[in-house]
Design a protein that fits this description.
Blueprint (H helix, E strand, L loop, with lengths): L1 H25 L5 H17 L5 E4 L18 E5 L11 H33 L1 E5 L2 E5 L6 E3 L2 E4 L7 H15 L2 H14 L6 H20 L5 H10 L10 E2 L5 H9 L14 H12 L1 E4 L7 H4 E2 L7 E2 L2 H12 L4 H6 L3 E9 L5 E8 L3 H12 L4 E2 L1 E3 L2 E15 L9 E3 L14 E7 L2 E7 L10 E4 L5 E3 L5 E5 L6 E4 L6 E3 L1
Parallel strand pairs: 1-8, 2-15, 4-6, 9-15
Antiparallel strand pairs: 2-16, 3-4, 5-6, 5-7, 10-13, 11-12, 11-15, 14-15, 17-18, 18-21, 19-20, 19-22, 22-23
Helix pairs in contact: 1-2, 1-9, 2-6, 3-5, 4-6, 5-6, 7-8
């Protein structure tokens, strides 16, 4: 949904800027071929610029996360029962997207109806071959052209006015103006809602008429041709054909009488290049600033004497997560579950900042976990040598679809492994205490080092996870108990 809205917003802004440039800089020039090319290329730019993305980083980060991030919190679990999940109301963005696609469908149907009407006129009209074109004679036809077909209400071979009309429409056919009409009408279906789409359409079709008028007046009197335009003025017709007189006659006559623009004025088209560059910068470049890890050890600690604590301790933190985390509807419908790992810094004021996804499972769930942590209440800052310092923390949040839960969208917290059935038995943990640090290794039932096991202090919010070899270390007092847990295993208590 957001992708569609972003595309339409960026495309709309591109169209507005390009047409403003044409209207104020180019529209008064008599370089009709160049102006026609600019408008057609503008349609291509509007459709493609929002789809092109260039990522620009201020500097490269060779090691975005330190290998050792020892202190973590117990994994938080957001569980939901898909059988009893409630149906959420559509958002404003969803309603806008539905309205857009409804308008798109209507515009496409109208375009197809117009094509069908033209094809029916071609089948039912009397056909006359005339100097490489086909004249279609029918009382309901107005003087216009569609590719090599020229529509006329009647055929008057002795009429000088009709001969001039046919010459006019033959130029439309030779310059392939019908292709422009079809391309624009498809473009109009995509941006049917844009307030200036009608102005762009009139400008393109006016250029068609200016081109034909310029060709005609090379072999005919401007006065004679202008009189014919006034006599044959009419309104109506569709936008898929080139009508002989569908634009303001006054503007066409004024353009015929206007002095041709000097060749040196073509330099104005060079301003198209910086304009295109501006559009790319505004709508195609994504800037990403990555913090350098080189300075991090000097400013941010991984382990300190007194680690940061959330307001209300572990119980308060778990309550905040239960009340804030939401299992997104799309993730529930797709059956997505797993653990999102985040890192963040608790600064000297206790504020949570620099929240990042260390390992994600789904864009929507990742963003939900990111939002909840970013908006968390202030913490008690960590201290080292009696001074408040910045400390980097790690937090796993588990999203799991709980099929046995009777409460939809319920959120709960637990130690990783607390609700496991222990089908793999108990964890094999070898640990020792020395110099104020518990250290050891966690092994699975096959005796291999188990990575990602959670080790936390009893009645505290501090802990760590085992590394790739199953090893861990945790700074605490010898009297404090620690728990080791992993999904599928029974939790182990170390005294």
């Amino acid at each position: 949904m957001n992708g569609v809205l972003n595309y339409l917003w960026e495309g709309s802004m591109c169209l507005l800027l390009l047409y403003a440039f044409y209207s104020f800089i180019l529209s008064k020039l008599t370089f009709f071929n160049w102006n026609r090319l600019f408008l057609l290329l503008s349609l291509v730019v509007v459709l493609t610029i929002p789809l092109v993305t260039f990522q620009i980083t201020t500097f490269q980060e060779t090691n975005p996360f330190p290998e050792s991030l020892p202190f973590v919190f117990p994994e938080s679990n957001s569980a939901s029962n898909p059988a009893s999940a409630s149906i959420s109301a559509p958002s404003i963005g969803q309603i806008i997207v539905w309205m857009y696609f409804a308008g798109l469908g209507f515009s496409l149907l109208r375009l197809l109806a117009g094509l069908f009407h033209i094809l029916r006129q071609i089948r039912t009209s009397r056909k006359i071959l005339y100097q490489g074109n086909t004249l279609l004679i029918h009382p309901d036809c107005k003087p216009s052209s569609f590719f090599h077909y020229i529509f006329l209400p009647e055929y008057l071979p002795d009429s000088q006015d009709q001969a001039l009309i046919i010459a006019h429409e033959k130029i439309h056919s030779r310059l392939f103006h019908t292709f422009d009409c079809l391309i624009f009408q498809v473009f109009r279906c995509v941006f049917w809602f844009h307030p200036i789409i009608k102005l762009v359409e009139n400008s393109l079709y006016a250029l068609h008429e200016y081109q034909v008028d310029q060709e005609i007046t090379r072999s005919h009197s401007k006065a004679e041709y202008s009189e014919l335009l006034v006599r044959l003025t009419w309104t109506g017709g569709g936008k898929l054909v080139n009508n002989f007189n569908q634009f303001q006659i006054k503007n066409r006559i004024m353009m015929m009488a206007k002095t041709k623009s000097q060749s040196k004025e073509k330099f104005k088209f060079l301003f198209t290049l910086p304009l295109l560059g501006l559009l790319i910068v505004l709508f195609s470049c994504e800037y990403r600033e990555e913090a350098s890890p080189i300075a991090m050890p000097m400013q941010v600690y991984d382990v300190v004497e007194d680690m940061p604590r959330p307001m209300g301790g572990l119980e308060g933190w778990n309550k905040y997560l239960r009340n804030s985390l939401v299992y997104t509807t799309e993730a529930k419908e797709k059956g997505i579950s797993g653990t999102v790992y985040l890192t963040f810094v608790v600064d000297t004021e206790g504020s949570v900042k620099d929240v990042e996804i260390f390992k994600g499972i789904d864009p929507d769930l990742d963003q939900e976990a990111l939002k909840v942590v970013e908006n968390s209440p202030k913490w008690t800052p960590g201290t080292q040598d009696g001074q408040k310092v910045n400390v980097k923390m790690r937090l796993p949040i588990r999203f799991q679809i709980d099929k046995s839960s009777s409460k939809p969208d319920s959120t709960s917290t637990r130690l990783d492994g607390d609700d496991a059935d222990g089908k793999y038995g108990s964890l094999d943990v070898a640990a020792r205490y020395a110099d104020g640090i518990w250290s050891g290794v966690v092994r699975d039932r096959n005796g291999k080092g188990l990575s990602g096991a959670t080790i936390v202090l009893a009645d505290a919010s501090l802990g760590t996870v085992s590394d790739i070899n199953g090893q861990f270390s945790l700074k605490t007092s010898e009297s404090e108990n620690i728990y080791v847990s992993f999904p599928g295993y029974k939790s182990t208590k170390i005294n």
